[in-house]
Specification:
It holds the Pfam family FMN_red. By secondary structure, the chain is of the alpha/beta class. It is built from seven helices and seven strands, in the order E-H-E-H-H-E-E-H-H-E-H-E-E-H. The chain is globular, with a radius of gyration of 17 Å. The protein starts with a strand and ends with a helix.
Length: 213
């Protein structure tokens, strides 16, 4: 039973919707799952027009979704990371969190973990793919194993999908506007992470047993 951490930052709740779908799918696939949020920064930058939605979402998750810690990353065999699009990059709280992983990533304690990324942005071709690839850059520095969606399942060919790097939704800057195609894609992505994490974890255990023998 692999251990999966779904780690995300969400401002208005769209990435949160994807994260919940990923966590649910991973649990259904037999994994132990932790749904964890990256907290906002003290001086948060808010997309104009979303102020009320940002405040409402922060209140909704404050006491229901725990904040992520480095111990959660060490616990996990597989990690799904979610971020909104910000100028084609991950949101600032996600970047700060990635910076904070140096004490465990530089000694190699995140090496060989299975990692995948998902995102949400306001417009088509508005930076979803570059945001995912930027997250992949950090995963490479961790020495972790990137699991991309690819073009490997029927769900990825639905009209609202198609991104091979990870699930990316187009929300038109409206809270609660994640398309069902995107929910299905991130569920597929989570099951894929569970499957690969299961194989990697079992393989490492077999190697350790062989060496010990």
């Amino acid at each position: 039973m692999p251990r999966i951490a779904v780690v995300y930052y969400s401002s208005t709740g769209n990435v949160h919707m994807l994260a919940e779908a990923a966590a649910g799918a991973a649990e259904e696939a037999g994994a132990q799952v932790r749904l964890l949020r990256i907290p906002p920064l003290p001086a948060e930058t808010v997309v104009p027009g979303t102020e009320d939605a940002v405040a409402a979402h922060a209140e909704a998750v404050r006491d229901t979704v725990p904040e992520v810690s480095l111990d959660d990353l060490l616990w996990a065999d597989g990690i799904l990371i979610g971020s909104p699009v910000r100028f084609g990059l991950p949101a600032a709280p996600v970047s700060v969190f990635l910076d904070s992983t140096a004490p465990v990533s530089i000694p190699g304690r995140l090496a060989d973990k299975v990692v995948s990324a998902f995102t949400s942005g306001s417009a088509p071709h508005g930076g979803q793919e570059t945001t995912l690839l930027a997250l992949h850059n950090a995963v490479c520095h961790w020495g972790s194993l990137i699991v991309a969606n690819g073009s490997s399942d029927e769900v990825l060919f639905r009209p609202e999908n198609g991104n091979p790097y990870g699930t990316g939704s187009v929300t038109r800057n409206r809270p609660g506007n994640v398309h069902e195609d995107n929910v299905a894609a991130v569920a597929f992505q989570a099951r894929r992470v569970v499957e690969v994490a299961t194989v990697v974890t079992a393989g490492k255990a077999a190697v350790e047993q062989a060496v010990a023998a």
